[in-house]
Dipeptidase (Streptomyces genisteinicus), 465 residues
Amino acid sequence: MSDTPDSVVRTYIERHRAAFLDDLAAWLRIPSVSALPEHRDDVRRSAEWLAAKLARTGFPVAEIWPTAGAPAVFAEWPSGDPDAPTVLVYGHHDVQPAAREDGWHSDPFEPEIRDGRMYARGAADDKGQVFFHTLGLRAHLAATGRTAPAVNLKLLVEGEEESGSPHFRALVEERADRLAADAVVVSDTGMWSESTPTVCTGMRGVADCEITFRGPDQDIHSGSFGGAVPNPATVAARVVAALHDADERVAVPGFYDGVTPLTDDERELFAELPFDEEAWLRTARSHGTLGEAGYSTLERVWARPTAEVNGIGGGYQGPGGKTIVPASAMVKLSFRLVDGQDPEKIERAVTDWVAGQVPAGIRHEIVFGAPTRPCLTPLDHPALQSVVRSMSRAFDGRTIRFTREGGSGPAADLRDVLGAPVLFLGISVPSDGWHSPDEKVELELLLKGAETTAHLWGDMAETMR
């Protein structure tokens, strides 16, 4: 094999593989669980470890940024080329809670390598995927002979993603001048499978609410008063029943206003994926599909907005009967949003719709949580094509297909505040078990992630000038 840049990259990564994995294991031993107060110091220690490692990697700037909650890490390495584009990489260093008794076959914070996989909490979500950027960057420098990246490279590694990123947008707004970029690369995502490399092009947003319905001032006798006063549990049930029409479309007026429709090309690309609906149903522990008419299962969970009932309750819940009209009832709803939808407009539309469902004699209150905005990058965006080309090089010329994420994350905050397109680069696969016992990362895919980034910075430097 000739000594091409691709071969230099692959050789460098292989030669430094053992040291890279040792360093990753050291980071994974830090139980940076942001959701548990007793691990607050561990989250801080994780940030300090990463900042120190980035400085040793060569970043001339590596800082710990405090927030009202857990700290983030920021690093910057200027290219030195006056016309080089600026790229910001996003990830997170906090992890989900984990304990051996949850069903792990090894200590979740003592990494083990078995059968080509590293098992540990955070191995895939998200420390492993953040950390492959350090090896990829060093391979990029080795292959090009550069002393600095081909792009102005910045990293922002959050410490509260697993707790809902409550302070992330405020941090981005406060530090927008330091974070300014021409493109954002999010490495908190994954691929379709080990044999089907893919690039995610978007994530849905979310708005959620809790609605409380109040009727009588206390539970009252259903024989004496039932049928003559409004029942808040009945109202809650009717609101839930009215949420969708016969075609499973959300019945809230204005809900679909502004939705970016799927193109024929996108639908064809989704259809090309080797999707096994029966296997998907087994993963979902479900026994049949149901959703908006006219769309496939993948289209429903990736590219269409939805409404779900997350909880409903009211009245007597104990054993036996209790013949009452309950004083109150409640419903919890969530709405997954797609590109073109504004969470604030959705909240107003839902508020108005609920008010129209409530009869006289019922008082109601609706409280929304903090929303997350959707984001989407067009398939023909030049920066996205850089990611696709670089991943194809790492995967020996294989075709890179496209997916979206049905879930939600803070990527849209970066797009909205910084005004930069958001790209997704991840190598995790569904079997990695994010948030589950025995979370793992496939080592060969982890190194493919490093190889992709080694090619990416030069490609983006050329593409985005």
Q: What stands out?
A: The chain has two domains: 5-203+375-463, 205-259+305-368. DSSP finds 15 helices and 18 strands in the chain.
